[in-house]
């Protein structure tokens, strides 16, 4: 069974508290927080995501899954530390060199938070192999980061398969998460590829029944 991390990127501010509550009732496994700075990606969601995260921590005990799509990774880690998220995921491409990657990993860990590392569709999975013993999760972007509602790039699922094989062969312990274009039509291929956690946004938020949709996605 795959776990579901619901992206609240497309949630309307006037409905945010009710939607957060409804997602908990529907048994989402995580709230996925898409933090965008307008630099690493085009869209800027900094203020909105801080507000949504604050609301979540006030009304729900469901874990928070923070995805940083930002240039200044360290400062945004510091912004989310007070919320005690389950994990913070940063982009490999946002770091200047391997030394900076390790610095970011250590910064997250020293605050008692799980570490995720993410790669864009064009980044070969081999580039992050050396960091895998130090992280709790790898997020494979199955669309270009920065916009909701995109179609899943099927070739990215090959990276999921490759990563799963590498994990099994080397007896490593990390989750594989996929994000982008995942819905009831694509979830079967995502599960088959070996994903542990699927990020779903519009596929849940725009559905008529959150509970039934999440139940179907988890099968």
Helix-strand pattern: EHEHEHEHEEHEHEHH
The CATH topology corresponds to TIM Barrel
Number of helices: 8
Basic shape: globular
Query: Number of folding domains?
Result: 1
CATH homologous superfamily heading? Aldolase class I
> What is the level-2 CATH architecture name?
Alpha-Beta Barrel
Ends distance: 6 Å
CATH class: Alpha Beta
Fraction of residues in helices? 25-40%
How many strands, what sense, and barrel or not for the largest sheet? 8 strands, parallel, barrel
The oligomeric status of these chains comes to single chain
Provide the β-strand percentage band. Answer: 15-25%
Strand order of the largest sheet: 1-2-3-4-5-6-7-8
Mean pLDDT over all positions: 96
SSE map:
Blueprint: E1 3-7, H1 16-25, E2 30-36, H2 46-59, E3 64-69, H3 73-80, E4 87-91, H4 98-109, E5 114-119, E6 137-141, H5 156-169, E7 175-179, H6 187-193, E8 197-200, H7 202-205, H8 210-218
Parallel strand pairs: 1-2, 1-8, 2-3, 3-4, 4-5, 5-6, 6-7, 7-8
Helix pairs in contact: 1-2
